[in-house]
Design goal:
Radius of gyration: 21 Å
Bound molecules: uridine-diphosphate-N-acetylglucosamine
Structural class: alpha/beta
CATH architecture of the largest domain: 3-Layer(aba) Sandwich
Distance between the termini: 12 Å
Strand content: 5-15%
Shape: globular
Oligomer: single chain
Number of strands: 13
Strand order of the largest sheet: 3-2-1-4-5-6-7
């Protein structure tokens, strides 16, 4: 059985690692052998956005790297399709497996179906309902084309049914990212917060280490275009964070490359690096971010993956978005996060409210660390049924 799986950007790596491990485990048994190839589209290419994750999560080097890199969405998707088509024609897989909702996911899904190869989507059925999000377009296209849709929760099953996806194509398997969290959490736990911070501070901030003396800190990540691409919106968020919220406790901000670029373009960088209680950090490795999350008093983020990790770890989480494709992580579904959008007053109110609650870990159904083996088994079974 020939399978090609695809990764492109940072959030894909923690989803593919357990899948590859489950394929290797499957091949230890007698029976159908899986011939697997990993393709990296190259959408993320900085060492700390890509290679570091392969090393930390022990992902074997990609068999092929398409080297696509940054660009407009059309450039990324178009160039990925052209390059991936050649790989598909050469290897002629039985299945193409894509994960998540980045441009690499969408591009390779379209190519797969045009080449008449069966397509499986891991993390299917998530819907934010927000067509301004490039990821929502990627999810809709990928799910519409997929032959097998592996869903992380029951709400996603409902979304797919509403769109008319037939029952035999939907497989509720749980959240594959939690497989990675469970395998890696002990390794993260023993890391020192102070060492992670001092080893990853942006230049010229060494003197800030002394603000980290207490137990408490908040943890921030931002990268969505809706938060960082408009100078006024982003300016107000930065103002609130640096002038108000960081007064309460040190704010650890791990800064995505596009966010750093925007901070500098909008003249906001100086604000961030000049406030004592704001510690600007490089993008962190998997274990490092997990460790900071485990110890954080509160997380502020617009990342979907972090929202899910907060849910399982129980870290109070403010999601700086107006909507989410991951409602099971919200407090009203038993999770740890509150949606706060990007309005200053709303963020401030929710911040002080959430600080009054404690850590309440919650585990949605089948977020049990065994999602990847369920996926591999379903793929093999579906293949033998023709
Ligand atoms: C992509 C995904 C998003 C995901 C995020 C996680 C899409 C549409 N978006 O957004 O869903 O949450 O990854 O990081 O696929 N850059 C670098 N080095 C890199 C990669 C990017 O400097 O290794 C900079 C470049 O300036 C680039 C910008 O970041 O133009 C944006 O990168 P891109 O891959 O287009 O999207 P992300 O914002 O990372």
């Amino acid at each position: 059985l020939k399978i090609v799986s695809v990764v492109g950007a940072r959030p894909n790596f923690m989803k593919i690692a357990p899948f590859i491990r489950a394929v290797e485990d499957w091949n230890k048994n007698d029976g159908v052998r899986i011939d697997h190839r990993l393709v990296h589209t190259g959408q993320h290419y900085d060492d700390n956005m890509s290679r570091a994750f392969f090393e930390a999560l022990v992902i074997p080097e990609a068999d092929i790297n398409l080297g696509i890199g940054s660009g407009t969405h059309a450039e990324q998707v178009g160039q990925t399709m052209i390059a991936f088509e050649k790989v598909v024609r050469q290897f002629q897989p039985d299945w193409i497996v894509v994960v998540g909702d980045v441009n690499a996911t969408c591009a390779c899904s379209i190519t797969a179906k045009k080449e008449r190869v069966r397509l499986a989507h891991i993390e299917a059925g998530l819907r934010s309902g927000d067509m301004d999000m490039p990821e929502e377009i990627n999810r809709l296209v990928t799910d519409r084309l997929s032959d097998l849709l592996f869903t992380p929760d029951r709400l996603s099953n409902d979304n797919l049914r509403r769109e008319g996806v037939s029952e035999e194509r939907i497989k509720f398997v749980g959240n594959i990212m939690i497989d990675t969290l469970e395998v890696q959490r002990e390794k993260a736990k023993i890391l020192s917060v102070a060492e992670i911070v001092s080893g990853n501070l942006k230049e010229g901030q060494d003197s800030k280490m002394n603000v980290l003396r207490g137990e408490k800190y908040s943890l921030l990540t931002l990268h969505r275009p809706s938060n960082v691409d408009d100078p006024q919106t982003f300016g107000e968020i930065v103002d609130l964070l640096t002038n108000e919220l960081a007064r309460d406790m040190p704010l650890l901000w791990t800064i995505h490359p596009r966010t750093e670029k925007q901070l500098k373009t909008f003249g906001l960088w100086i604000k961030v690096v000049s406030v004592d209680n704001v510690l600007a950090l490089n993008p962190l490795g998997y274990h490092e971010l997990l460790r900071l999350n485990m110890g954080a008093t509160v997380v502020l983020t617009d990342s979907g993956g972090l929202q899910e990790e907060c849910c399982v770890l129980g870290t109070p989480c403010l999601t700086l978005r107006r909507n989410t494709e991951r409602p099971v992580t919200l407090q009203e579904h038993g999770g740890a996060s509150i949606l706060v959008g990007n309005d200053r007053d709303q963020i401030r109110r929710a911040y002080y409210k959430i600080l009054q609650g404690g850590r309440t870990p919650s585990r949605p159904e089948l977020w049990d660390g065994r999602t990847a083996p369920r996926i591999v088994e379903a793929l093999v079974q579906k293949s033998s049924l023709g």
